[in-house]
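Notes from hallway chat w/ T.B., transcribed later so I don't forget. T.B. wanted the structure written out for a chain they're using in a teaching module, and asked if we could keep both sequence and structure tokens in one place. Agreed to drop them here.
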Amino acid sequence: MNKHLTRLSHVGIPTSDLERSLDWYTRVLGLDEAFTLERDGKPWIIYLHLGPETFVELFAPRADQPKPPHTHFSIEVEDVDAATADLKTRIAQEQLPTDEIITGSDGSRILNFFDPDGHRVEFQELCPGSSQAEARTRLRAAKE
């Protein structure tokens, strides 16, 4: 087992109708809304709690992009720098086009890479103050 991998952070799901999908995931599956990110003043990404540690990410693809069946999955890591260094010893260069760690729109630190079929995989380090870290704190506090 790789010591840097801690849990699945979230699964990103493209939607053709964000509000309809939000209704379905909250009503049918009983997931709770964690937070919403906006683009141009409109909901763009909605995170839902899937248990205390994992999220489902519903998002609206841009109109000029074809809707993919799957975009990525994210694995939470405690230290994205250490996980990246370890990954670089195990992955083909074409699967790691860049080892640049970026800051995501939610304030977390992220590295993206690809599996052999081209599916994007994300290592995500939740930083203090990131939207996901704060949502987890609120959920844990509500359970106490």
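Follow-up for T.B.: Residues 131-143 form the longest helix (13 residues). Might be a good example for the class.
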